[in-house]
Each structure stands twice: as C-alpha cells, then as structure tokens.
C-alpha cells in the first residue's frame, strides 16, 4: 500500500455558460519519504492537482488517499509552503511560527521548544522578537518552512516556494529544504516551472500534458543525483543528460499546444 494514492482524478471547472476540463485521468502513487515534482506547460493544471491532493478542492471524479484514508480526513497531516510566505506582518517571528500549533491546539512547552529549536537549526538565531519586514525574502521563507514543519505534517505541498527569490538565495534554500525534509523523513510534492529545480530536489518528476492535464511521462531521477544535495546535483555529470531529456519533452508539449 502506497503512502499517497491519487486515483482516476478528473476535474472540470463549470461556469454558467462553459465547462473547461483542467485534469483528465490522473493516477499516481507516492511512497513515504519520497520527494516528487510536478512539471508541465503553463495552464496544464499543476496547481489544480496540488489543490485536489491537499483536499482544498474536490475533484469532479476520482479519489485521493493518504495512508489508505480519504485525504479530506487528513487535513491536519498536510503542510504548505507557497510562493508567498504569508507571514502576518504585525506578529513577531515567534508568534508566526507558533500560529499553526496554536490553531491546531498542539501548542505546549514541548512543541514550542521544538519549533524554536528548528528556527535555530536553519540559521535564524535571535530573530524571534523581530517582525517579518525586518527579514529578507529568503529568511522569511525559512520562517515559513519552520511554521509548516512545526505541526509535524506527514505530507508537504510546495507550490513554487522559491520562485520569488533571487537565484543565489533560491539555490541555498533548495539545499536547506532538501536537507530538512530528508532529516525528518518527510514526503513532499513540489509544483514548479523550473526543470533544474525538479531534477535537483526530486526522486521522481511527473510531466503533465496541457489542456486537459494528463500524466504524459514520469522520470525517475538517477540515484547518483538523488543521494547528493540539490546544489551538487546541478553540477553532477549526470545532470545535463536528464535535463536535456525533460527539456525536449516539455518543448514538444508546448509546440504541440501551439
């Protein structure tokens, strides 16, 4: 039995006058501790699929199971890291990272201590009393990661969490997030437009076709890349070959769409 099972997902958006099918016949499985990415042309339904997997959106047909239970019963087991950090600007960093614990009624001295410890672990010491506006974009995303991990979710949903950052900060955060998720044995799904990011961070990459989104191809990242950090993976001799393969497939999908 797989940790996460997505079975025969089909989704159509209905308006008064139109019906637009975003996803068709999506089935995939993700194992515990695995990191997978979803790639595809713009408008192929990547974010729709992520919303369905996280139970924020109910599919027209199909099922999503987490540990063999409907995903709708496991909302507290899912954590999110998005493009925007969505920190409350009037709350201190400490208040922000403890918010999820407070809302889920898990806040106690032990969980608070663990969250503050994680803040130090990712290199943010002495910022607890500061406000988000006093931190850089990369630092705020690290705070958002701590807030996400503080509630100990079983599944992490990452929706282009590094796309608003400068390239150097993005590379550093890729390594940091990858190391933290590996250390905690977390399962993660990343939606990204960045082929390099998908290759460097993932065990597998699902490439979606456009309009409606279907799983066009699945790429298993070579083991020699999976066992090293994302930064090192980008500089490994095996990296250019898998990059070119995925690039050509994505290019062919975009050309066919035109």
Automatic annotation (TrEMBL):
This is Taurine-transporting ATPase. PANTHER family: ABC TRANSPORTER ATP-BINDING PROTEIN, TAURINE IMPORT ATP-BINDING PROTEIN-RELATED. It comes from the Bacteria. The keyword Ligase does not apply. Keywords: ATP-binding, Nucleotide-binding, Transport. It holds the Pfam family ABC_tran. Residues 4-235 form the ABC transporter domain.
